[in-house]
Amino acid sequence: MPILTNFRRGAVALTLAGLGLTACSFEVTNPGPLVDSDLNAPGAVPALVNGMGGDLSNAIGNYLTRGSLAAFELNHSGNFAAERQFATGVIRAEDVNGDWARMQQARWVAENGLVRMKTVLGTNFETNPLTTRAYLYAGFANRFLGENVCETTIDGGPRVPSSEHFVRAESLFTRAITLARAQNSTALLNAALAGRAQVLAWQNKWDAAVADATLVPATFRHNAVFSINTTRENLGLATQTINRREVTVFNTVWVANRDARVPYDTVRTSSGGFQTGQDGRTRFFRQRKYITLGDPVALARGTEMLLIRAEAALRNNDVAGAMTLINQGRAVSTLPALTATTVDQAWTILMRERGAVLWLEGRRLWDLRRWLASGRNTTLQGRSTCMPISLEEIGANPNLQ
Amino acid sequence: MPRRPDFPPIPPSHVIPLLPRRPGAGRTLLRGLAPAFALLLGTAMTARAQGNGTINGRVVDAENGQPIAAAQITISGTQLGRSTGDDGRFSLPNLTAGSKTLIVRRIGYQQQSRTVTLGANATITVDFSLAKSSVSLAGVVVTATGEERKKEVGNAVTTVSSADFERGGVGNTQQILQGRSTGVTVLANGGSPGAGGTIRLRGVNSITQGNRPLIYVDGIRIFNGNSPTGVSSRQSVSPLNDIPASDIERIEVVKGPAATTLYGTEASGGVIQIFTKRGRDGAASWTLDASGGINSMGDFGPSTDPTRMFIRECRGPNMVDANGVAFEDATCPESGSWLKNGYLGRYSLGVRGASGGINYAISGNLENEEGVLRVGTNKTGGMRANLGFAPTKTVTLALNSSWQRRNTAMMSDGNSADAFLLNVSRGPGSNFRGGGCSTTTIVCTVNDTIFSKSNTIGGDHFIVGGTATWTPFENLTNRLAIGIDYNNTDQRTINPFGYLRTPTGQYFQTLWNRQLITVDYATSWKQTFSKNFTGTSSFGGQLFDSRLNSTELQGDNFAGPGTPTLLSASLRQITDVNQQRVINAGLFAQQMIGWRDKLFITAGARIDGNSAFGQSFGLQTYPKVSGSWVLSEESFWPTNLVETFKLRGAVGEAGKAPGAFDATRTWNPVAAEGGLAAFTPGQLGNPNLGPERTRETEYGFDAGFLNGRLGLVFTAFSARTNDAIINVAYPPSQGFTANQPENVGVIKNNGFEAQFTGNLDLTSWAKLEARLQFTKVNSEAVDLGGRVITLDALSRSYVQEGLPLPAYIGRRVKNADAFEAPIVEEGQFLGQTFADKIINPSVTLTLFRNLTIEAIGEFQRGGHLLNGSGFQNAGLGIWQPCFAAQKALRAAAAGDASALASVTARDRMRCSITASERDYSYWVESADFFKLRNVSLSYEVPKRYLPRARSMTVTFAGRNLFRSTDYTGTDPEVADQRTSTFSRRDYYNFPPYRTFLFSVRTNF
Known about the structure:
Number of strands of chain B: 50
Helix content of chain B: under 10%
Number of helices of chain B: 9
Distance between the termini of chain A: 65 Å
Shape of chain B: globular
Radius of gyration of chain B: 30 Å
Largest sheet of chain A: 2 strands, antiparallel
Oligomer: heterodimer
Largest interface: A-B, 87 and 90 residues
Structural class of chain A: mainly alpha
Structural class of chain B: mainly beta
Strand content of chain B: over 45%
Number of helices of chain A: 15
Strand content of chain A: 5-15%
């Protein structure tokens, strides 16, 4: 039958053409992003570790604006809806999707990167200074989460208390201390000791915390790095207060009670009036702790170590010991010594000192939260004290449903 | 080798693939082919023996005697034919003597045929007078396999021809499509000249992969998206609008996957085919079109606000905030309004004809349009050359090339700190404050300084393509089209040195280059199986190579004044580089079987591969089947009641490919730790990722009544997208925070389209054409695996099972209209984003044969829009419609509860003065509207006044002259294009304006 013959020919032609199609190279080319397997090489490790630092800074820099609003370090003078909620003391799961994701990503990238480095570096893993840095990033990412979230989950797992992050951080800092000592790196050692002192204290292991804190020099400072090099490296809080006027020092306690460690200026318009914030109403007093978009944010300071030791002393009602340590810290900033005769007075001074030393470093909410729990401070009474698990995490993580 | 007549076959778009219907033909394929060969041989032999004759003639409109251009004249049983020139004349030389049946077809007219006897070496004249038809099955439409007769096609295909829009004062494709076809939604996204709109065919079939239709220009596919969105203009331009209306012959709109199956993986959003003007027989015919007019702002914004958001009035007693505190703008123009009239000039000159065996259409165009603010212009100009010739007797070539240059300057708009509407409407809260006001104590804004910022998009758009058609035998046609669509765009956003908000300046530049190469081959073989059965077999393949090269640059801190470049900035960044290449290739095969030229069944399939499919994913097959039955040609059909009736139905599948890199796990290189090289997680990746598949069933009919005076075209459709690609959120605690596309959803989309057309002779000198189009589209997320997909949390825009796509979900005041304390319900469905009912009434009244009045309107019903401007300004105490409510709320807060007696529960929440109560949800509003899209009055100048011209038409046209809506934002059609193009949010977006245009079109 001619029809069949023709159909057969057609079918053969079509099949051949189809085979040709399968042989066609459909490899998508999109130079730029790296495929995951390309990271499994020793040459990729430096950039991998830098990425851990970048992700941690990105998480901190973005969160500072909202964290400072929730903890009364700054007031709201802008138009962003989520910030407005934070400022009114309401931290909602739907408003923390971004912060939660960045904080968790910083932790995952560092912890998971360490696993990859162990495989890629093999026997060089322990001796490589990058490994110590990676442990520090992982430790501080956990400390940052532990201080700010209400409860947590690890790698898509079930709900666990936020203190899980302090447990992990302690273990990570301990590894960092061991490696830093072996590598004779004083700077990394001090950072690891300071980080461990922080998380030991928050686990109520005050004696151990004091032991680590005592080893850190008063002038020591370890930073999360920011830069004007690229937008992603910018410090978000600086963008919101230098390029924009979203948050203001106006109407905070620091206006009536000025402190050199809480620098700000009042901004005037060209006609001489007070500049208002982005909302067009609230007076805009600009924070001056960070004066460029690339200023670093402290992750650990020697002055905080003194305050941890002072707080440990006060917990033992040692007013004199506490005040000595507090005044050692003030001396670092060439501030006059303070006196207190009662435990309560010393606590008031300590709480203010921590507020001044750690201002706009993303730490205040945790301080107010733990002091509220211990009955020392009621600033957060009736307000959100921490960041809930984000709506996105709840929606995507079957272990939370 | 049989001898063929000396004149070349007509160009591809004019070929009418007629099937010979000769009694006594054999039953096998060979037998079926035999008569064709015999005819061909016989024709040649006779020609040699008996000499050649010529048939000349003219085709005119039966109503007014005006010549009909581009009517197709063919000789039955052959592929010989020509199309008429602008004067309606045609000539068929070198014909063999004998009996010939001439068939004349033209879209919009009833087909006519006449049999004549041509003597040896004779020249005879055959004139045709065609009657208009509301529904015509004559003519051809272009499908993926080539041209098909309209009667054979089982889908609804809408054709908009130049005669339909020439009078309307339209400038581009987007404006042509507005209100002229069922199933087509066009939303103007903003009020800057040159801003690209959003086009949807039959609603929504995809959540994540876009719903833009594919666009072909003369058989070459062009990029169907918009340019990058401006950093501060928040709008983009559409390359589709680079094809000037004056170049367009017709547009065919192919809606739905049942019709677009053979277009493959990327066609589920439908296909728009644009055909530009081609050369015609006869001497050169020149057309000069010169238009001038003005753009001016019609009504916009909240009707109770006399200042219209301080745009219409920028000076006077109404310049106060909710507390009655006055403010001033020192830079408000002397007129007291920011609005002005903008000039619009549009010119085109074209020539068409044929000479020395080459037909040509060459044209140039120039347009300069100003918006209604001090900044905002669109300047564009370009050229086109379309050539057609036949290098051999069996091959025709068509070469089409166009170049269009565009320079668009937009104002800052939308969600940008520099946006003009944002700052002006915020009154005292403007970011641009300074001195120069009447007193130093008043809040003083200087919003005019915003205009020193520039947002420009410049670019060149080339479309170059060639189509070769080889017809070795009468029944076998091979077509190969190769072409490139080349878009080059340079987009810059510059805050100059000394700019108030960023005193040291800022510079953003996006260099964007898109290339799309098309290789398209199709062969079509017509068969006659028997007396009753005919067939057409088609197969072919297409390859599309899509490349994107884009670089985003940013500079900060200029050293000083002067026109900056990136190097003027002390701080320079390359913020993004994209060099993407995606290849899509596919093969198709189709068989049509026809019975007695009345019933046609077509079955086909396409096999596709695409770069973006996951590694574990192979080729994709998309099947289709369709049928068409011309019942009115059956003997039992009561043609006295309904003279034309075609029943049609189709079912088919088409797809949408995932994004280029969605299948692979990636890390993004970034800088960190002070400019050091670093990686951060990118895409999670999914090796099983494939395209989403949409299966659609459509059925309907085309009916013509009362000698073509009334027509009804109806189509119902039902589409279901399986494996819908949804960006699934994985737990952020697992590291990768970008959502991963997965084939996990099912969505459905159904509705119907109806077009009713009437041609009525009111008197001997007055004729009325009326058209009513109705489109109903319902889309719904059927299964998302229990997920709720957040499109834009701030916009309250989500995709949720059981709700339309996309849906606004949030808080609702249950007792909205009651004068009592509000009862707020959480998580409520607030409305669907896109309109589900679109109604387009239009009328054309012709008086005394030469005066035409035309009006096209559009109702959109069922859609919603988030009024972000209202939400923000109410919170800032500067939303005029909230002033009374906020005064009462303040009084109540001060202890006077009775002040709230006249404030509804809705307004208590919308206008709340308590920050924690405020929510975007309360600002999701109905976006229903009626707009008078087009009104025109055109006059055909009588020939006696035109000694040197063939014809002249003088037109006065207006666009967007009237608007009716309850929406309180600027306009229900606007949306910020940088946030999301699927969800829609009006966030200080400047509204579209109206246009008055006077034009003179001369043919000579």
